[in-house]
Structure formats: structure tokens, C-alpha cells
Amino acid sequence: MTRIESGRDLIRAEAIHVALPDRGRRRLFGRTPQVDILRGVDFRIGRGETVGIVGESGSGKTTLGRVLLRLLQPSAGRLYFDGQEITAADQETLRPLRPRMQMIFQNPLSSLNPRHTIGEIVGAPIRAATARAALRDRVATALRRAELGPAYAGRYPHQLSGGERQRVGIARAIVGEPSFILADEIVSGLDVSTQAQILTLLRSLQRDMGLALALIAHDLSVVRVLCDRVVVLWQGRIVEQGTCAQVFAAPRHAYTRRLIAAIPLPEIDDGWFDRPEIDADIDAEA
Amino acid sequence: MSERILAIDGLCAALSPRGRSADGAALLRAVSLAVAVGEVHGLVGMSGAGKSLITKAILGILPAGIELTGGSIRFAGNELIGCPEARYRQLLGREIALIPQDPLTALNPSRRIEAQMTDVMRLHLSLTRRAARARALALLRDVRIREPEAVLRRYPHELSGGMRQRVLIAIGFACEPRLIIADEPTTSLDVTVQKEILRLIRDLQRRQNTTLLFVTHDLGVVAKICQRVSVLHAGMILEHGATADIMAAPRHPFTRALFAATPRYDAPAEALAPVPAAVLSEIAGAAQRFDAARRG
């Protein structure tokens, strides 16, 4: 394993390519044709930094997230976590790093084991490495930080509301004191008030714990709440990046402009529907 | 006011009292809602506010264990509460249609799109198989599906979320109903797909002069598609009026809080705030006073 000068990058991904079998063109004999999901993506996130990854379904944003956590090995490119190259690292090498990189999933119900209590779910990432008494304390601390009382430890996922389940997901992600969290569309199923609660909670945890946070979202308004920086993915490539303030005030790429034009802000805007879709421009710029 | 197609007046609902326990918890508290012909009316609230209970009461599909305890729901002048099931079978799909939230569970996974689209037309419009198929193709073109013949042969799982939602919109508008209830039809979609779906609904609604009750938690969607809006919480309508007025100057603290809880890409992140507990407990107090007055 080579050590490199990491500077202030916690995660660095260079020229990441991912090609997966195209299920739509599966063949009876021979190899299934491959489809390119990511085509040369460079991505970095520093300690305590917050970066939004935006794009539509199929843009490759979830795949990029899986690569950043090394849940998926890229077909080409290099991946570094805290200066250590992990592009092709085996499970044994990755195991000690796992507690430091965590994930909060899109659908809180399907990502929580229905047979486990909330306490078991939240403690799972650190159970193997923690004594029983200490485990109970750390679970209680994580629950409290996620603004759930200690009584939640004995409950089951189906007894909780959508917002509470998402808090459990957050508690599970922070229990091992990670340095990086990937959050994939974590508020898309929630109503606005619950969404605001989860977003403000995650924002204060991120600041208090100095977390690096990558937030995958199709809704740029959500990214604005949590992220300093944003990268825009389109067809497996980054087409634009910059600070949120910059990119949202003056988007340079036609695809970013299209994403912004599709957001329904809560204000009267009679021309909203008539504003032209600009796919042609996107292809021209690609 | 122009002719009302839907008039809900003082609608109350509660959990059915079980055994000897005195009375069930109230779920709807004197909900009144008037929707004019051709209007798109937004029904806005958080989860648990009672939005889907109202739509289920209109459609006559209240779940067991919940009963209406007062008020009326008039559709085109006729009372829907207590109306016989045979009458509902004539109404649903024909005069009142639903565009549901989750297109995957709303479509039967084991039947092709063609059968699911033509059922309602053959039943209500007495169309032959061939005529129903022709109309299904026309409807799919209306919702801008490029290869309608191919889509008719598909099963739901073979279509993307956006395509399934288009199919359900086509089914909703198939018999040119007078009232369509759209239940969060774009909640799970990408913003770009959401905009296309909203545009389709708006275009078909205008062409057929359909009345639309649009259920959502998203004030942004309301601003773009609804002329009037009712804000619901704890089973009570807290505020209603023209969308333009409410966007410009929301009167109820809860409505103002909903605006503050809605993230905006063009505003600093610090502006975002969940609905304050004080606002919620104020409403809870009003609900308790309402329940006490009804019991008293």
C-alpha cells in the first residue's frame, strides 16, 4: 500500500471509471455488454467539508457514492482515503477504515432490519470492537445526538415515524465517530417540516463533529442547506462544480441551468412552465 | 362564486369507538372545502394532517376503524356520504378519478399496461376492445410517451417511475372525469421529471376543464399549479385562499412556518427552520378545545 501526501483531502478520487453489465441487453450466451456509469470522475472532499453531488436518476451519483465508500471497486482510476490508496484494497484492509466512513440511506425503513431493536441497529457498526457496557453508553450518546430519547433503544423500526427512522439512520452512522458520512437522498420521502428537522440536525452534527459530508440529492435546494460545495453529474461526468453560492447564482453549464429551472420555488412565477427545456444546448456543451 | 363541483362542509372523522371506551380520537375537525368547476385546488399539510383521509372520504374508501362523525361531501350537488356502493361504482373512474402517489403499487404488476388502461374505458364508456385501444394510444401520446404501441405491451416493472406516472395520468383523464384527485403525484420523482409531469397534468386539466384537488406537502408545487389552496393540520383547515395571496402574505403562523421549513437553492442555508413547537402546540390546543366543545 503506497502512502501519498494527502494534504487536507480526506477522500480523493481520480479519473474514476465504472462500467457495469447492462441488464437490459443481457445475452443468453457470452458476456453481457457493459455500460459506462462513470466516465472519468475526479472528486475530493476535505476534513469537515460538505459537498453536494447532484444529478438526475441515471447520472451516476449513487454509483459515485458507492465508489467513495469503496462498496464498489472502480473499473479504472484511483481512490484514496486519508492518504491511503484503497482502489483495490481487500476486505481485511478496509475493515479498520469502515467505522470511519459511514452512510445514511435513502429509504430508512428498508435499510433497517425489522427484527432488530433500535439499540441493536445503532450499535451494529461498533459492536465487534466495543465492550458491552461501553456499547450501551455509546448507543445512548448517538441516540441523544440524533435527538432520540434513550427509550428508543428498545423499540423496533416499524414503531417509528419516517423522520424518527431517519434519525436512527443518523445515530447508526455517527456511533463510531466517523470522519466521513455519505448521505444518499435522505430527505426525499419526508414532508417539509420533518425534512427541515433532519437537515438542521445533520448540519449541527456535521459542524460539532467536524464531519466530512457528501450529500447525494436531485433537489438543489436541499444541497444548499447542507453543503459548501456542489458537483453536478450528468451522464457519468462532472459537468460543473463550485461553491453553492457561485453555482446556483450563475450556473455555467446548460444541464445545471435545466436542473435549477425545474425547481418549483414557493412563489408565483407565471412563466415557469413556459421556460424552454434546453436539452439541445446540453448536448452541444457536452 | 362560480359553480361548485365539490363542497365539503363541516366534515368530521374519528377512530371508531371500540367496545365500552367512550369516544374515539378525532381525525378530521369540521373540515370545509369548496372547489369551483375547472379549479386546481391545493390541499397542503404535513404527514398525518388528514390529507389522505379527506381524499379517501371523497372516494368512499375509508379504512375500517375510521368513521365519519358529521358533515357532508357534496359532488355536483349530490351527497356522497352514505351513497350506495353501486352509485360509487358509476362515479369512480368516470366522474371522479384518482392519480395516486406511488405508481408502482397503483398498477397491477401482473397485467400489461393495455389491459389496465382499457378496463376503465370499456366499463364506463362501453367502448369495444379496439376503440378502447385506440383511445389508450391517443392518451399515451397526450402524455408524451414516444412509442405508445410498445408501452401498451409492457408490464409496469418494465417502465421507469416517470413513465408509470404518465400512464396513471392517462388513466386518470381517460374518461374525462369532472373531478380528479391527485395525491402527491410527483413526490418521488426527480425535479426535471416532476416539472414535465406537472406540465402534463396542467395541460390536460385545461383542455378538459377538469377540476383538480391536488394533495401535496410542497408549497413550491402549489405555487406552480394551484389557483387556490387550503392548509391542513391536525384535521383542521387553518387557512385557505387564492394561491397568489397566500404566497404573498400567509396569515396563519403554521403556513408561515411551512414557508420557513421549505429549503430554497437561492437563499442562505441559515434561513431554514422546522415548524416551531410553539406553533404546533397552539394548534394542538385548538384541536383539544374543538373536541371538548363537541363532547360538551
Task: Describe the structure concisely for a colleague.
The complex is a heterodimer of chains A (286) and B (296). With 286 residues, chain A is an alpha/beta fold.
Task: Report what the structure shows.
The complex is a heterodimer of chains A (286) and B (296). By secondary structure, chain A is α/β, with parallel strands linked by helices. In chain A, 32% of the residues lie in helices and 23% in strands. Chain A has a 6-stranded mixed beta sheet, with helices on both faces. A 4-stranded antiparallel beta sheet of chain A has the order 2-1-4-5, with helices on one face. The N terminus of chain A is likely disordered. Chain B has 12 helices and 10 strands. Chain B starts with a strand and ends with a helix. At the A-B interface, α6, α7, α8 and α9 of A face α8, α9, α10 and α11 of B.
Instruction: List unreliable stretches of 5+ residues of chain B.
Output: none
Biggest sheet record of chain B: 6 strands, mixed
Supply Rg of chain B. Answer: 20 Å
How are the strands of the biggest sheet of chain B laid out side by side? 6-7-8-3-9-10
What is the tally of beta strands of chain A?
10
Largest interface: A-B, 43 and 43 residues
Distance between the termini of chain A: 37 Å
Uncertain runs of chain A with pLDDT below 50, 5 residues or more?
1-6
Describe the largest sheet of chain A.
Answer: 6 strands, mixed
Quote the beta fraction of chain B: 15-25%
Count of helix runs of chain B:
12
Strand order of the largest sheet of chain A: 6-7-8-3-9-10
Q: Roughly how much helix do the residues of chain A carry, as a percent range? A: 25-40%
Order of helices and strands of chain B: EEEHEEHEHHHHHEHEHEEHHH
Broad structural category of chain B: alpha/beta
Rg of chain A, Å, rounded: 20 Å
